Amino acid sequence: MSRRETLLPLYLPWTDGERRVLGPLEFLHSRCFSLAYITSIILIPHFFGFSYWGAITPSKLFTAPHEYLLSFITVPFVHYGTEHITQVTITFIIFCQSFEIRAGSKETAILFFSTIAFTGLAMGLFINVGNWLSSDTELFTQAFGRSWMGGSIGFFGILGAMSHYSREKWLVPVILVLFETWNHYENDMNEYINIGHLCSALFGFVIWGLYLKHMASMASDEKNKPAEHEG
C-alpha cells in the first residue's frame, strides 16, 4: 500500500512493480496467470470451435444447478468469436497483468474466479427471482432466456480491486460507471450486463480492500511481536 504514486496503477508487461525491466524468466513467472489465460482463450477455439457449451445460463440455476455451478469454471474460457477474444486479450494485456504484478499470480487467479462465482450466483438469483415476480418485464425475460460467456465478469472484479493501488481510490469506480453508462446508451449494451459488470467491480473493490486490510493487520502484529530470546 506504500506505492500509490499514480492515479492509474498500470505497468508495462515487461516491468515489475518498481517499473524495473524484467528478464525473460522473471517476466514469465510474474505474469503466469495472465499469460496462461490469454494462451488458453486463443487456443481453445482452434480445438473446440465457438459454442455455448461452457456459458452461464440463468435458467439452469434451479433446473440444473450442477451445470450452473460448473459453468463458473468454464465460462471465462469460451467466447462469442474472434472479436470478443481480441477485446478480452487487450484488456488483460493492459489491466490484468498490471494488477497481477502488484497482487501476485495466485491471488489474481483466486480473485478472478471468486468474482465470477459471486456475480454468477448474485445475478442468477436476481434474474430468476425477477422473472418469477415479474415475468412480463423485458429486463428479466431477456436475461432469463439467454446465456453469457467470456472473462469480463472476472475482469471487472480485478478492475474494482485495482482501485486500492490508485492514489485516488474513487477514480477507477467513477471511470467504470461512466464506461458502463456509455456502453449502455451508445452501444446498446443490455442492462443486466451493465449490472453484472458493476456488481463484479463492487465485489472486487470490497473483497480486495478487506484482504489488504487483513494483510496489513498481520504485518503490524508480526512487527509488534516481542522478540524471542534464546535461553
Plain-language structure description:
- The protein has 231 residues and is mainly alpha-helical.
- The two termini are 37 Å apart.
- It has one domain: Rhomboid-like fold, CATH 1.20.1540.
- Helix 2 packs antiparallel against helix 5 and helix 8 packs across helix 10.
Kindly state the percentage of residues in helix: 55-70%
Total number of domains: 1
What is the overall number of helices?
10
- Elements, N to C (H/E): HHHHHHHHHH
Name of the CATH architecture: Up-down Bundle
Which runs of at least 5 residues are low in confidence (pLDDT < 50)? none
**What is the CATH topology assignment?**
Rhomboid-like fold
Shape: globular
Beta-strand percentage?
under 5%
Number of strands: 0
Q: What Rg is obtained from the alpha carbons, in whole angstroms? A: 20 Å
Task: Describe the main β-sheet briefly.
Answer: none
List the keywords.
single chain; 231 residues; mainly alpha; Rhomboid-like fold; 10 helices; 68% helix
Task: Outline the secondary-structure elements.
Blueprint: H1 24-30, H2 32-48, H3 60-63, H4 65-74, H5 82-103, H6 105-133, H7 138-144, H8 152-162, H9 171-186, H10 191-224
Helix pairs in contact: 2-5, 5-6, 5-8, 6-7, 6-8, 6-10, 8-10, 9-10
